[in-house]
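can u do me a favor
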């Protein structure tokens, strides 16, 4: 999840106030929204997994809409309706089967729905003729791969033993990395990590975020999943590293599209993708590490 310029360097001797001004965020609103969203996520993961599945379906669908809007700004025209309809169906149908103990059928639904969406977007583009077909088809398939494909691994994680705790450990590591990167970047950031994509991010912030994610992952996995500390530490580092790349991916999309935020659907934060950017890329990595190493 992207913090506002989470690893932005500031001039030596500064107190970070200029950085806070540059974010352009209403901090009280952003904090309130973050607390509300955090409470929803924790409550559903601990006591009502269907609620988290519904929340995920809504968030991913909003992300699809935002990515399609961004892609259209650079001249491509993805077939959005098959993905807008298919994404929540994939999440909810697969989780319903997982919840019923039908794991193989649930996996089949995930693969089948992804394949069906690809077929649907290709066929939906045919009536517009051949001009720009490759461009529009590529944009459509990119959207499918970026959101429903990567996001479906959260459903896989939720369906495993102690699934709510697994997802919570993963999200704790993502948030810890963001928070550590923000704090260390503001305090010590000097060397820009990817100035052409996201000028505010520094290598010092990234290292700080990874260290905090390592500790958070080690503690949370040990306490909530009763797994070895090294497994949690590995999960935290992997999630932090891949999540940072997810942040850069979304920054590149926004920079190419010439926008600051994907939308304004999340008060104080921007769009759904401004919260999902780290999560969607890091989710497959977290699922794989925990699937392999936590019995």
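np, heres the sequence
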């Amino acid at each position: 999840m992207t913090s506002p310029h989470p690893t932005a360097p500031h001039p030596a001797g500064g107190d970070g106030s200029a950085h806070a001004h540059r974010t352009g965020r209403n901090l009280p609103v952003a904090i309130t929204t973050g607390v509300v969203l955090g409470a929803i996520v924790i409550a559903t993961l601990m006591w009502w997994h269907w609620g988290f599945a519904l929340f995920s379906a809504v968030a991913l669908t909003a992300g699809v809409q935002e990515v399609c809007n961004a892609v259209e700004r650079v001249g491509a025209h993805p077939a959005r309706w098959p993905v807008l309809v298919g994404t929540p169906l994939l999440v909810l149908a697969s989780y319903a089967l997982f919840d019923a103990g039908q794991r193989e059928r649930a996996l089949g639904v995930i693969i089948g729905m992804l394949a069906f969406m690809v077929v649907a977007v290709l066929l939906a583009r045919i009536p517009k003729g051949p001009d720009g077909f490759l461009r529009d088809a590529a944009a459509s398939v990119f959207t499918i791969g970026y959101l429903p494909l990567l996001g479906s691994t959260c459903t896989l994680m939720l369906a495993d033993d102690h699934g709510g705790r697994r997802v919570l450990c993963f999200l704790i590591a993502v948030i810890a990395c963001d928070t550590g990167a923000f704090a260390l970047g503001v305090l010590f950031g000097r060397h820009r990590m990817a100035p052409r994509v996201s000028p505010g991010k520094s290598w010092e912030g990234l290292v700080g975020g990874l260290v905090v994610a390592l500790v958070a992952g080690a503690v949370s996995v040990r306490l909530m999943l009763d797994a070895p500390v090294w497994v949690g530490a590995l999960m935290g580092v992997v999630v932090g590293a891949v999540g940072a790349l997810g942040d850069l991916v979304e920054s590149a999309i926004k920079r190419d599209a010439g926008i600051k935020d994907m939308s304004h659907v999340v008060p104080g934060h921007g769009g759904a993708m401004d919260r999902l950017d780290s999560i969607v890329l890091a989710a497959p990595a977290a699922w794989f590490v925990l699937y392999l190493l936590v019995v």
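Residues 1-26+163-295 form one domain. hope that helps!!
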